[in-house]
Amino acid sequence: MKRPWVAAAGFLTCVLLFLQAEAATKQWTYSVSSNIVLQIRTDGKGGCTLLTSDMDLTNEVVWLDKAGNVILTMGVSNALGGGGVASCAPTRLIVGDEVDGGKVVLVVDAKGGKTLVPAAAGTSNTVFTFLPFPVDRSADAKGFFAVETDTNTAMATVVRYTYK
Amino acid sequence: MKTRICMIAATVFVALWAVATVVPTQKWMYPGDETITQVVPDGAGGCAFVCEDTNDLARIVWVDKAGALLYQTMITNAPDQPIVACTSKTLVYADKRPDPLFVQVDATGIEKLITASDGIVERPFLAFLSTAAHTDAKGFIAVVYDIANDRQNVARFTYK
Known about the structure:
The complex is a heterodimer of chains A (164) and B (160). Chain A has 164 residues and is mainly β. In chain A, 12% of the residues lie in helices and 45% in strands. Chain A has one helix spanning 2-20, and strands at residues 25-31, 36-42, 48-53, 59-64, 70-76, 84-89, 92-99, 102-109, 114-116, 143-150, 156-162. In chain A, strand 3 (48-53) and strand 4 form a beta hairpin. Chain A starts with a helix and ends with a strand. Chain B has 160 residues and is mainly beta. Chain B has one domain (23-158). Chain B has one helix and twelve strands, in the order αββββββββββββ. In chain B, the strands form three sheets. In chain B, strands 2-3-4-5 form a four-stranded antiparallel beta sheet, with no helix packed on it. Chain B has a four-stranded antiparallel beta sheet with strand order 6-7-8-9, with no helix packed on it. A three-stranded antiparallel beta sheet of chain B has the order 1-12-11, with no helix packed on it. In chain B, a hairpin with a 4-residue loop joins strand 8 and strand 9. In chain B, 33% of the residues are buried. At the A-B interface, strand 2 and strand 10 of A face strand 6, strand 8 and strand 10 of B.
């Protein structure tokens, strides 16, 4: 008599576990030093790059790996005028910026090396933007990113979730 | 001579047939409303989208690769572009109930709320500019405007 009950309990547990399987799981968090997250670009592997701003509109790019560790940070100018993160991969970042008033595109590696995409005399490179803001992309095949804002301090934290 | 003509004719026929087969095929269409404001494909032939009626009431709709409804809900006070993620197994969108939070839905329509104990859960400031590639390996999603009924619908096409 005991065995059918044990089997039934086991079966029920499996069913409940299956039903619960799609609940998002928090993987890591990153506290943003400024309090506005303008843009998130996933690297497709669990990491991402943030474009942040403070109240003085000072912008910073923060590149995080799949564990939420900082790969590098760099300041950018005029993020709302043609700058921002154009693409993010685990080993490479493409950022739009302004140098001496001219628009440039930088390829950044994970060691912080920056390569300026060359432009012929009289031309400049820009990243594709819309209206002219940088485009957000905060989900990938395995999970997504959210911004948690503390309602007491107004400080923002970026959170990585997996779908299950 | 006759054989050569037959071979050339067969080659031309095959070439024309090959060209003719690369024509998009509509797999399904799902009714929207006055406006479709966001479409996010699941990468497997289905998608989630947001539509608004003439009173600006917004609805999130999630359909599978056959165009069958998985989930839909009216959303109030949700941000522009509320869909965060869509796969064939899960949908995540931003909503306010009444505070900002995320809602995760599985393919049976069961909702789970993603909240913060000391705050709110939001999309990034510029998330209203989020874009999704409306294509995958086998096809694409289009918004089809029904002129007669002044209505926008969502349709899935395969490349051929």
